[in-house]
């Protein structure tokens, strides 16, 4: 099952207790389903959990039943074509059967619990969310432009801060930030899914931090190897010119240690000195050897 499917399954576990909230959820479903018109209501879904929730949701909200129920698995199709049932649904939300465009009836969504239920229904019917391990994108799509615009305003009042776009005749409200997706999923009753988004982001952050550390360590190692090569070249040049034996004892000791341990870090090489010296002191000696080697170049 996809992550979207998991989210919808979690949402469908929420009990249908209050009739006002059932009506609000059904309102969200209708405005974001495949068809909601004067002639037909048609809801199509691939979510088994949502398909099981629809009949009791309709019964709780309007005390009516679907005219057509799914006849198999896969894509579940529900529809209502009875004019009296359609009129009862439209009258519940104060819409006109002959209206050319649907609008959001804010009077139905005065209570915060009803707003939450409405968003849940909208997501169940017209929403999707990307697996957070692959990316961050959650959207609600409807063919009703006025509804989408008004829902965007409602969501901003709820401090959810969505973005909006038009795509292939659909009006889309979407989120592309993980924290916004977490807030939305939590608000509509899917805290477990919201936690999965949070955990996926945390894993990505940790993985990114480890990769940066590894890359940084690799870059530092490359620099150390390059520096050691320069030091070895300078020391061999001094040796070839007969200058190495004439250097002060401290520089001769440092040169001998570097030739004997070309892969040692500065800290390791400093520990080999007799007596051991600081990394800074050793670095100063090696820089001096490099400068003298360049003079012989």
UniProtKB/TrEMBL annotation:
Domain Sporulation regulator WhiA C-terminal: 210-292
InterPro entries: Homing_endonucl, Sporulation_regulator_WhiA, Sporulation_regulator_WhiA_C, WhiA_LAGLIDADG_dom
Entry annotated with the keyword DNA-binding: yes
Keywords, alphabetical: Cell cycle, Cell division, DNA-binding
GO molecular function, one term: DNA binding
Chain ranges passing through the membrane: none
PANTHER family: CELL DIVISION PROTEIN WHIA-RELATED
Function: Involved in cell division and chromosome segregation.
Family recorded in the similarity comment: Belongs to the WhiA family.
Name of the featured protein: Probable cell division protein WhiA
Originating organism: Flintibacter hominis
